Sequence to fold (177 residues):
Amino acid sequence: MLLLLLTTGLGLLSAVRAVLPPLTPARAEELVGGWYMVRWAGDMPIPDETKNHPMPPFKLIINNHKKLEFRMNLMKPIGCIEFKLPLDTGTEPGTFVTRWKHTIHIHFLPGRTHGIAYFRGYMNYMYYQMMMIMAHTLDEDPQALNFFKEFVESKKLKTNEIMNPPRTDACKLARES
Fold:
């Protein structure tokens, strides 16, 4: 009986994957440039005021150590700060590893104008997952957004909880002024 349930479950999982269009694993050099978080979803416990905080654009660069690096200017009570997160290249195509050993999967949607970043990991004795669809512009692409909705469903999250973060410009660092 257990074998029957396992077989049925795996069959359903492969059927869900078959519906999604093929994703292309991203290489570090393909990700360099400015990006916007278009939508995001996840099951991490994040306070409402943080969920609805305006999101500035972010940059992915190749740093002096030849690593992909996430950069975002954030406004804090002390002023504008630059958040930096270097990412090592993972063992599988399209994977990048943070200094905390969290693996982030980044894949392009067909057409390569949008990408999906996905994290599933163990923190504070629980498994969590976070995902976002990102693009170089804020132009709405219904096909990409529909694909992201399907991706969220395939990860067993509620599509009515997909966040459309308010936008803000990146603040200027003191050295940029």
